[in-house]
Amino acid sequence: MRSVEALVPLKLTLFGEHAVVYGEPAIAMAISEHMRVRVTESDKTTVSSSSLKIGNIKVDLSSMHIESEQAYRELSYIMETLNYFERKVPAQITIESTVDPSVGLGTSAAVIVGIVAAYSRFLGDSLSNMEIAKISRAIERKVQGIGSRMDTYTVSLGGILYFPKNSEGVERLDGNIGITGGYIRRTLSTAEILKRVKAIKDKNRQFEKIMKLIGEVVEDAREAILRHDVELLGQMMFINHGLLMSLGVTSPSLDEVVSSARTIGLQGCKMSGGGGGGSVICIKSPKAELLLESRGFRLVDSELNKNGVVIKEISN
């Protein structure tokens, strides 16, 4: 029985989350946590996962309709991805992740990228990683309606990626940043937070100034990475977090961790990803690990993944 498997790295946003949606630059890195998507020959198409748990499901028994925003969102990504392919062959699709979903590590993007990569190869196509990134971005945008290409490109291509201002280009940065990362459960999805930020944009005339400042922080952080200037990089982390806090996308738990990081002398710390809970990154150190663990964060494997999505065929 023929199977195709895609191993997709997850990601950490280093700088520029939210501002990248409005044309400002951003930097993200692929990490060693991953999602595994396997497509196997079958007489019907099914999707299963034991690790992407979806809670709080309500079912209308009269119509057998699942009333859950999270379930609808996750299934929308899967269905839109499968619908992209004009030619369809029945297959069993299994999705397994080393982390919880919706914690700011790009799991939704990884689901799309993994299915695009594995199912296209299952159909006999050989897409490049860049082609996978572009297709996945189009699918993600169709489901979300708003957002950036950062997540789909980062998990497709791997490495530390810089996304320039008002550009569809992407630049691979040479370097290997030591990061301590961890996460807690979020109270809002990325799509919900993006809508909240858009509402702020529509009502607050200071919004564009904040976005521009975040963009300037990203440019300074890019230079710090290229020069291996850890001190400057850490300073930019604290500043970036403060600007995100002004947008209302952080949370009390994230703010407390970042404040404590500064108090105990860590070089840098900030929220990572959409916010509303989720992920935090710090300049790598044993004290950073102790801080995150003491606040109930689950540490993640933040080692750099340079390869992006990897596809292999399996003969059972």
UniProtKB/TrEMBL annotation:
Q: Where is the GHMP kinase N-terminal domain?
A: 77-159
Q: Where is the GHMP kinase C-terminal domain?
A: 221-286
Q: Which InterPro entries did the record assign?
A: GHMP_kinase_C_dom, GHMP_kinase_C_sf, GHMP_kinase_N_dom, Mev_gal_kin, Mevalonate_kinase_arc, Ribosomal_Su5_D2-typ_SF, Ribsml_uS5_D2-typ_fold_subgr
Record keywords: Nucleotide-binding included? Answer: yes
Q: Which GO terms describe its molecular function?
A: ATP binding; magnesium ion binding; mevalonate kinase activity
The UniProt entry, under Gene3D superfamilies, shows: 3.30.230.10, GHMP kinase, C-terminal domain (3.30.70.890)
Question: Where does it live in the cell?
Answer: Cytoplasm
Q: Name one Pfam family in it.
A: GHMP_kinases_N
Per its record, the protein catalyses: (R)-mevalonate + ATP = (R)-5-phosphomevalonate + ADP + H(+)
Q: What cofactor does its activity depend on? A: Mg(2+)
GO cellular component terms given for this protein:
cytosol
Q: What is its EC number?
A: 2.7.1.36
Q: Which residues form the active site?
A: D151 (proton acceptor)
- Pathway participation: Isoprenoid biosynthesis; isopentenyl diphosphate biosynthesis via mevalonate pathway; isopentenyl diphosphate from (R)-mevalonate: step 1/3
Q: Does the keyword Aminoacyl-tRNA synthetase apply?
A: no
Q: Which GO terms describe its biological process?
A: isopentenyl diphosphate biosynthetic process, mevalonate pathway
PANTHER family to which the protein is assigned, alphabetical? MEVALONATE KINASE
Subunit info? Answer: Homodimer.
The record's HAMAP family line, in alphabetical order, gives: Mevalonate_kinase (MF_00217)
> Could you say which protein family the record assigns here?
Belongs to the GHMP kinase family. Mevalonate kinase subfamily.
What is the name of this protein? Mevalonate kinase
The organism that produces this protein has a lineage beginning with: Archaea, Thermoproteota, Thermoprotei, Sulfolobales, Sulfolobaceae
Report which gene this protein is encoded by.
mvk
